[in-house]
Design goal:
Blueprint: E1 3-9, E2 13-20, E3 25-32, H1 36-39, H2 42-56, E4 64-71, E5 74-76, E6 81-83, H3 96-104, E7 108-112, H4 113-124, E8 133-138, E9 142-148, E10 151-152, H5 183-186, H6 188-201, H7 207-214, H8 220-228, H9 232-256, E11 260-264, H10 272-285, H11 288-293, E12 295-298, H12 305-317
Parallel strand pairs: 1-4, 4-7, 8-11, 11-12
Antiparallel strand pairs: 1-2, 2-3, 5-6, 8-9, 9-10
The protein binds zinc ion.
The site of zinc ion (ZN) has 6 residues, from loops.
């Protein structure tokens, strides 16, 4: 049985894993991402690290079916190139596949990081056993990936931009140039923006309001924790958040009718409370046949979704 290598390339660390063809993680390690000098050390460092580990474990390139990688930026899946990954300082076109195959002698496949995380959850996480899974990640931004009938959906390249589904045409400005995108209210920063805005007009007693007015650090975690303690302002804020995310999920599901919508990323640490809230609005807005069958679940793989999903690119390509 041959093995797989999965790589999750991020702005601060590169995570690696060696897996079986069934997706069982056997080894994990990581290195720092050196983004100096236009990120030109990133790929050579990845190659060095893989070759070093193979030597350490007494393995050779023949032991591997392939390497899969998830990368930020615009990924050309066919050519194996990346451009516009600004957190890596990759402004110019990077010939990633060519370099890694030359440096490791192992076949290489890649996709963007959100798509790869979706594949991970579909293969071994909350969507395991289903061919129709949508992954929504609520982090610094809101990203997503769509697996429909077993295939990752790319469209003309930018399919799955779930963070830019419009949930309020009169809403906040988004980094994409539009207003009212899901990301402006459901990312880590978005939830805080929502809280500050609602707090301004809120006149009642609230610990959250005192914290905001005092200039204390208010994060998505603080807001959800306060909602759990039944702080009235925090409850209004998270209810609004549930509405926006539930509405977006119903629109996604009405188009794709997935088995599962998986919610992950830092904000999803709010846990089952968040799933219950979002499901309430999802059931309110989704098409009857869809609301009965599509489930909304928390992501299960955490940080491993990237390396596991990346490795599955290899299996899917063979
Ligand atoms: Zn946007």
């Amino acid at each position: 049985m041959k093995k797989l290598i999965g790589i999750d390339l991020g702005g601060t660390t590169v995570k690696f894993a060696i897996l079986t063809e069934e997706g069982e993680v056997q080894q994990k390690w990581s290195i720092e991402t050196d983004i100096q000098n236009d990120g030109k050390y990133i790929i050579p460092n990845i190659i060095k690290s893989i070759n070093h580990r193979l030597e350490l474990y007494g393995l050779s390139s023949d032991d591997f079916l392939g390497i899969g990688m998830g990368s930020p930026g615009n990924v050309d899946v066919i050519k194996g190139t990346v451009i516009g990954a600004y957190n890596l300082n990759w402004h110019e076109l990077q010939h990633v596949k060519e370099q890694i195959e030359e440096g490791t002698r192992v076949p290489f496949f890649m996709d963007n990081d959100a798509n790869v995380a979706a594949l991970g959850e579909q293969w071994k996480g909350a969507g395991e056993g289903s061919n129709n899974v949508v992954f929504v990640t609520l982090g610094t931004g809101v990203g997503g990936g769509i697996v429909a009938e077993g295939n990752l959906i790319h469209g003309l390249g930018a399919a799955g931009e779930i963070g830019h589904i419009n949930v309020d045409p009169t809403g906040y400005e988004c980094t994409c140039g539009n207003v009212g995108c899901l990301e402006t209210v459901a990312s880590a920063k978005g939830v805080v923006q929502l809280a500050r805005d609602i707090s301004e007009k809120y006149a009642g007693d609230s610990i959250l309001k005192v914290m905001i007015d005092d200039g204390q650090e208010v994060t998505a975690k603080v807001i959800f924790d306060q909602a759990r303690f039944e702080d009235p302002l925090a409850e209004i804020v998270v209810e609004k958040f549930y509405f926006y995310l539930g509405l977006a999920c119903s629109n996604i599901a009405n188009v794709l009718h997935p088995d599962t919508i998986v919610i992950g990323g830092g904000v999803s640490a709010a846990g089952e409370m968040l799933i219950h809230g979002v499901t309430r609005y999802f059931k309110k807005y989704a098409f009857p046949q869809i609301k009965e069958s599509t489930k909304i679940k928390l992501a299960e793989l955490g940080n491993d979704a990237g390396v596991i999903g990346a490795a599955s690119l290899v299996v899917n390509n063979f």
